[in-house]
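User: Before I run my own analysis I want an independent prediction to cross-check against. Here's the chain; please return only the structure tokens and, at the end, one sentence I can use as a sanity check.
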Amino acid sequence: VSENAVSGHIQLLVPGETACFACAPPL
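Assistant: Structure tokens:
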């Protein structure tokens, strides 16, 4: 579910960096 949530956030918010950081640490 975590991965799905991150993917959804990145898709919703073009800036993946911000979405990734807000959701989870940069892998």
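Sanity check: The chain has a mean pLDDT of 54.
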